[in-house]
Amino acid sequence: MSFPNKKELDQMRKKLENAEPVRLLPKDASNVDKLKFSLCKEIIIYLKIHKTTQVELANILEIDPARLSEIVKYKIDLFTVDRLLSLVEKLNPSIKVTVA
Fold first, then answer.
1. What's the CATH number for 29-100?
2. CB 97 within 8 A of CB 85
């Protein structure tokens, strides 16, 4: 695998120019926010493992693709724990959630 040429780099930069960054979890995050972050991560893992698109996964979860995009960007403040958990349970009904 070689390093991308200038044209490829320019194309990547153009695509990323207006991309919204993924949010990170602050060090002092509450346990609720840590749980929400973890639930979002479970959905993203499913997306990657099953090599599906966000639109396809939104259809599976019966949510608007824009809402799934918010999950993928870890916009945890827009969701409740029970909403995220219900979505994760659709993907993995046997999931076990523990609070430490």
1. 1.10.260
2. yes
Which bin fits 74, alpha (ψ -120 to 50), beta or left (φ > 0)?
left
User: Which of the four pLDDT bands, split at 50, 70 and 90, describes residue 22?
Assistant: confident
Give the DSSP letter string of 10-61: HHHHHHHTTPPPPP---TT--HHHHHHHHHHHHHHHHHHHTT--HHHHHHHH
Q: How far is CA 26 from the centre of its chain?
A: 17
- pLDDT one-digit tens code per residue, 37-86: 999 999 999 999 999 999 999 999 999 999 999 999 999 999 999 999 99
